[in-house]
Write a sequence for this structure.
């Protein structure tokens, strides 16, 4: 039987799916609903496999599979992007949205098929549902996609299969199946887009900052894979290995990643980046302000570690202490969203690259800072960091940045969308920076009435909804580009559904909540 929190989480996801398709119902809606029903049943099989230890790879413990909520994210993102760009008359990105939706459906269906295939005895009902959902999706793709788009979808699926086999083997207990679908599916799509655009430079469309994101993400992932394979054959904790790590990082960065980016943007990447960062006085002020906030975050880490006495080595930072970083991130993103979103876009990419590179140094124990980072960050671990990697801070950055990176600038003529869509870039700030933070702080300090089957409290959820409504009012006051056009009921419904999802999900909320709020507001 499915337990109550998982059932409640599934009902909330179904409510979001039906809410979106009540507005944009078309042939893809049948596919999305069929996929949701199929993923709901396949989730039973994944949860059973995880409980019995029958899954092929080691997944994160103390969480359900999360297949249903993860399966719907990429298809819904593609569908809402298609609708927005269709209304703006941008055919290229309308087709791009269809490709994203089709890719998300096929990858999610593949993950469900794996669960059904390795479950013994073979679950007949789930097999039938999977077959029906697969038939609907493939039939729709056959009549919607061109041959080149079908090939692109299959390329992403192939990359996802190989990437999953490699990374899930190398990184046990770091992901649930749902989180693996989101993270590895996203990386697979980015890698395929980068290969496609690199091979067709003359036909490539896009802003240099978009290419910068693609190259940065693929670059740090390939760097990690290279050193993971390398350090199988040598001890990564020695000075010789550490010197080789730094030397090869410089070689790969300057010899592969930089020329790759140069080929795409047709400019010297370093000169372009420096010119971009210091182009206006506003950008200089924002960079100085962000440097101060980064120093403050480092100060909190050092201060909390200094408080850790020798008698309490197993002491972990409290929930409220960890939420300090959420407040700092909100203070970082809000000025960027108001004054210069392009700078925020690039700064977030740089931050992501730095975070992942520092995690490599910590994970491989690269001298001279590897062991120090291990000691400093161990204080802030929680039950979600059960694998060899510490990913929660990276997920926080991703959750705040996804709405900025995924915002369809080409389909928003004036740089902003109308109605509730004007709040799309603020999805991360609202869902994670405000909602999740307030729910956690008030729920842990004053909450008494718990949601059935969870540790989350009714008071925390209600306070989170109220705090996000106040945040929307403040955004309206300080950001003149936001015009909601009386979309208040939809905004309230979106915020409420995502806050309820936060109460019941066992997945990484920093990753999941901003994406669902982004979808609802789009």
């Amino acid at each position: 039987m499915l337990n109550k929190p998982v059932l409640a989480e599934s009902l909330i996801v179904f409510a979001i799916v039906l809410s979106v398709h009540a507005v944009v119902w078309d042939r893809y809606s049948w596919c999305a609903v069929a996929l949701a029903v199929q993923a709901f049943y396949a989730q039973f099989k994944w949860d059973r496999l995880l409980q019995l230890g029958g899954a092929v790879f080691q997944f994160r413990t103390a969480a359900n599979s999360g297949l249903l909520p993860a399966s719907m994210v990429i298809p819904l993102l593609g569908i809402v992007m298609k609708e927005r760009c269709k209304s703006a008359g941008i055919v290229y990105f309308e087709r791009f949205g269809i490709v994203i939706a089709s890719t998300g459906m096929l990858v999610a269906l593949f993950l469900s098929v794996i669960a059904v295939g390795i479950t013994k005895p073979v679950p007949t009902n789930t097999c039938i549902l999977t077959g029906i959902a697969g038939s609907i999706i493939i039939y729709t793709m056959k009549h919607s996609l061109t041959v080149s788009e079908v090939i692109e979808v299959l390329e992403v699926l192939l990359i996802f299969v190989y990437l999953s086999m490699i990374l899930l083997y190398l990184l046990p207990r770091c992901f649930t199946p749902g989180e693996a679908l989101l993270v590895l599916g996203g990386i697979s799509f980015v890698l395929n887009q980068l290969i496609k655009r690199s091979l067709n430079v003359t036909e490539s469309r896009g802003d240099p900052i978009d290419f910068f994101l693609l190259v940065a993400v693929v670059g740090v992932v390939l760097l990690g894979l290279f050193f993971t394979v390398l350090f199988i054959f040598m001890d990564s904790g020695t000075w010789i290995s550490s010197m080789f790590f730094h030397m090869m990082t410089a070689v790969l960065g300057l010899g592969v990643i930089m020329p790759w980016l140069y080929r795409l943007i047709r400019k010297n990447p370093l000169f372009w980046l420096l010119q971009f960062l210091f182009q206006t006085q506003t950008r200089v002020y924002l960079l100085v302000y962000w440097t101060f906030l980064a120093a403050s975050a480092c100060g909190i880490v050092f201060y909390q570690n200094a408080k850790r006495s020798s008698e309490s080595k197993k002491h972990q930072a409290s929930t409220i202490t960890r939420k300090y970083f959420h407040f700092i991130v909100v203070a970082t993103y809000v000025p960027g969203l108001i004054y210069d979103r392009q700078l925020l876009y690039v700064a977030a990419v740089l931050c992501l690259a730095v975070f992942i590179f520092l995690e490599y140094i910590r994970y491989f124990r690269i001298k001279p800072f590897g062991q120090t980072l291990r000691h400093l960050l161990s204080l802030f671990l929680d039950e979600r960091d059960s694998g060899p990697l510490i990913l929660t801070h990276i997920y926080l950055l991703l959750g705040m940045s996804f709405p900025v990176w995924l915002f369809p600038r080409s389909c928003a003529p004036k740089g902003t969308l109308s109605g509730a869509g004007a709040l799309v870039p603020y999805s991360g700030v609202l869902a994670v920076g405000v909602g999740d933070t307030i729910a956690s702080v008030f729920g842990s300090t004053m909450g008494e009435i718990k949601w059935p089957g969870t540790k989350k409290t009714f008071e925390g959820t209600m306070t989170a909804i109220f705090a996000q409504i106040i945040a929307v009012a403040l955004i309206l006051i300080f950001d003149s580009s936001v015009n909601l056009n009386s979309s208040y009921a939809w905004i309230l419904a979106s915020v409420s559904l995502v806050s309820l999802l936060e109460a019941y999900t066992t997945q990484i909320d920093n990753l999941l909540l901003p994406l669902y709020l982004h979808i609802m507001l789009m």
The chain has a mean pLDDT of 86.
